[in-house]
Amino acid sequence: MEITNLVREIVRVTKKIKQPDLVSFVDQVQKAQKVYVTGEGRSGLVAKSFAVRLARLGKMVYVVGETVTPPIAPNDLLIAVSGSGETKTVVETVKICRVMRGNVISLTATEKSSITRISHFSVVIQAHLPKRLGHIYHLRELIGVPERPPVASIFELASLIFLEAAAFKLEAIWQRNNRDKRLLPS
């Protein structure tokens, strides 16, 4: 896919993201004591990228599955990223979070998926996803299921842009509330 076509497709998809979803997302991240992120494959990389942004803003943030991740507590926030909304480990993580009375926001391309049904709030990124064999990411990788075509990465790219926009808003709020502090210590 040529760069201009890729950018055109990203613009088309991101224009469909509802502005109130961004506002609500930022509000919920801001209110959370601790934030956890989860996702598999490229979606997991997007989630981890957002975790880095939050950490630099001084937010307590954890990546699910890392060895230093503490148990989730009531009113903590889990951000789950899954294009299909059916990735087994992500869905199970959301279920556990709900049992522990944590709040869940999902980013997905699939409006009627398992993850949207069990999340408190979902941001639907209307990117086209081709059908995949199975919902267990690690098993697909082990058996060598072919990677999605380039157009399928639009979900991850649009999710990254959404999360970057949220990070910009959170940074602006942080700067307004902390005028006398530097963002990062020297």
Automatic annotation (TrEMBL):
Please indicate if the UniProt record lists Isomerase as a keyword: yes
Which GO MF term does the entry hold, naming one? Answer: carbohydrate derivative binding
One of the GO biological process terms? carbohydrate derivative metabolic process
Ranges for domain SIS come to 25-176
Q: What domain of life does the UniProt record list for this protein's source?
A: Bacteria
Q: Keyword set for this entry?
A: Isomerase
What the entry lists under PROSITE patterns is as follows: SIS
User: What InterPro entries does the record point to?
Assistant: PHI/rmpB, SIS_dom, SIS_dom_sf
Question: In its keyword annotation, does this UniProt entry include Isomerase?
Answer: yes
Describe the family membership recorded for this protein in Swiss-Prot or TrEMBL: Belongs to the SIS family. PHI subfamily.
> What is the protein name given in its UniProt record?
6-phospho 3-hexuloisomerase
